[in-house]
Amino acid sequence: MSAAQALEKAIQKNLDLVKIAPQAVPPVCKIMDYGKYRFEQAKKEKEAKKNQRVVDIKEIRLSLSIDTNDFNTKVKHAERFIKGGDKVKVSIRFRGREMGHPEIGNDIMDRFANSCSEFANVEKPAKLEGRSMLMFLAPKPNK
Fold it and tell me: 109: exposed, middle or buried (C-beta count within 10 Å: 0-12, 13-18, 19+)?
């Protein structure tokens, strides 16, 4: 029907004439209560926002001369962060002559990744950037 007829029908029903697909030939319109439609859309968006969870990145710092008990404590911290739904950034800071031994840092990072393998995936493998080596761990996807 023509736009004038549709508008007349909408006025008779005390509703609005809303273009659904204005690019189509001829344009597609719908007779509805536009205020109610906008309210429903806002309600849906608010509900979707409520169900969202922001993923934080928690950092754990290791050193080249870390001992077994300290290492296990850091693994437990990482496990707690990951089970809480956050991502974990593991970093080792190289100082002075430690820069000459990045392979020791790689070994520690690999050991840490293996210790966390049952509850986390390695998102980004260990990589030396300047004086620090970084690795990112993410929670394993639920089955």
Answer: buried
